[in-house]
Amino acid sequence: MASTVGRMDTMMQKRLAARTRGPVYVPGAEGYDEHRLGFQLLDPHRPSVIVAATEARDVQAAVEFAAETRSPLAVQAGGHGLAAPAEGVLINTRRMSAVRVDPRTRVAWVEAGATWRQVIEAAAPYGLAPLSGSFPGVGAISYTLGGGVGLLARRYGFAADHVRRIDLVTLDARLRQVTAGSDPDLFWALRGGGGNFGVVTGMEIDLVPVARIYGGSLFFDVEQAPDVLDAWRHWTATVPEEMTSAVTTLSYPDLPMLPEPLRGRQVAQIQISYAGPLKDGRDLVEPLRSLGPILRDTLRELPYAESGAVFDEPDEPHAYRSRNLLVNDLGPQALADLTKAAGPSAPVMTVVGLRHLGGALAREPRTANAVGHRDATYAVTVLSPVQAGEDEVVRETHRDALAPLAADAVGCSLNFTFGPLSGDEVRSAFAPADYARLTRIRARHDPHGLLRANHVIPPAG
Ligand SMILES: Cc1cc2nc3c(=O)[nH]c(=O)nc-3n(C[C@H](O)[C@H](O)[C@H](O)COP(=O)(O)OP(=O)(O)OC[C@H]3O[C@@H](n4cnc5c(N)ncnc54)[C@H](O)[C@@H]3O)c2cc1C
After folding, report:
1. Which atom of ligand 1 is nearest to the CA of 198?
2. Could you tell me the pTM of the whole model?
């Protein structure tokens, strides 16, 4: 049966709106653009109808409507992970942003549209923290569905390793409480397999007893410290699991609005998040200080509530693309090539990011999940802001930058991919048997393949 939602008329809209508490928007209506646009401005969703859900029943109504009309169905929280525009029905979860913390059990209940910032703020008064990432503005649920590599990752593992319960509307419009006991397959797939199996209305997640970290960044001029990436890599082999770190390198244009010490230079920024005693953190970082003249130093002891300051990423919506590889080795030549790829002669502005993995990330959680490639030791991402007409050159630049790493790559991470992936690329995020299992679970719960996750795992068969 063909989708009928493309011909959305006033009657259909009214029928759907009558079933939801949250508003419903169609193209041209006031509020439509506001609810379809998120952080990623490249290729936004173009739905025939948007449900701005306020509660699980709204989600059920939207799913039921999509199933009845055989329409593609997409979900958007913050829109940071948007990969390709979806048509049909879009559920915007931004209004479902409740967070409840139980400090006694160290558990948080997080609704579908809550950002990590909201969870961090709710947990902080109890000296607790979630396993959030570099940017607190991203959606906690979307991040966790994709695995989630955060600032405490080497100490505690993936965010997906710390999920207790998931409330999910499956494509039959049923609201299920999914746990390891109630539905082991779905519970396994949802933690790492992304938004391919239903629409999550909320999750119960573990919090960890981290009130403060030693964190921030050291900035170096790559011209004065050309081996900084390699030196960081050597250093990562010496640090304990409490130390999670990363490094990015990019060439800043010579523009007056940029901070003076960074302007017009290729800069390497080493990002530090140490979940242990302040003195130990300082001592561990000490060897990095001698890598070259430090342009800027933001390292300090900070409350976890300020953890966004570690990477200090831009918070204005913009257009961007990125690719990544997970590798089990990084040789000096590969690092020199990557440094060059982010240099001033790159065809487009390119940010190379390396994250140190291992530690708790490498260990299976108590209840196994679909997260792929726990054996990877580094994640390598290449990211570029995209101006109109630059899509092709950005794609080529990223492909060329990652090509030398192919021999050491074990796959890719879906969370760190911003842009469409081929079927084979999505498959490469998982072990082959896990991918096959994911496609079977998808077939069981979404046989018609209506859900348009940002990275699609197709139903088997
Ligand atoms: C600046 C920046 C920093 C980042 N840092 C990190 C990091 O440190 N670690 C890390 O692991 N990732 C990181 N990410 C990636 C981020 O976790 C993902 O892009 C995540 O999907 C973004 O969440 P969102 O809600 O904003 O995305 P959205 O674009 O709203 O959602 C992404 C996808 O998630 C799925 N989804 C969302 N909500 C639901 C739901 N309720 N039910 C079912 N499926 C759903 C959908 O498939 C949707 O397309 C970062 C991204 C950015 C832009």
Report:
1. 43
2. 0.97
CA–centroid distance, residue 47 to ligand 1 (Å): 19
**CA-to-CA distance for 439 and 437, rounded, in angstroms?**
5
CATH topology of domain 99-209+431-445: 3.30.465
| Alpha helices in 286-390, H assignment, sequence order | 332-341
Task: For residues 300 and 308, give the distance between their C-alpha atoms in angstroms, rounded to a whole number.
Answer: 13
pLDDT at 27: 93
**Residue to mutate (ligand 1; options 94, 132, 143, 200; most atoms within 8 A of CB):** 143
417 CB within 6 A, ligand 1: no
* Sheet order of strands, 89-92 included: 24-25, 49-52, 89-92, 73-76
The pLDDT tens digits for 43-80 are: 999 999 999 999 999 999 999 999 999 999 999 999 99
Backbone angles phi, psi at 165, to 5 degrees: -150, 145
Tokens 């000490």 sit on residue: 286
Contact 13, 7 (CB under 8 A): no
Give the whole-angstrom CA distance, residue 82 versus residue 277: 38
Confirm or reject: Cβ of 148 under 6 Å from ligand 1: yes
CATH 3.40.50.261 fits 212-418, yes or no: no
Q: What is the domain partition of the chain in residue ranges?
A: 2-92, 99-209+431-445, 212-418
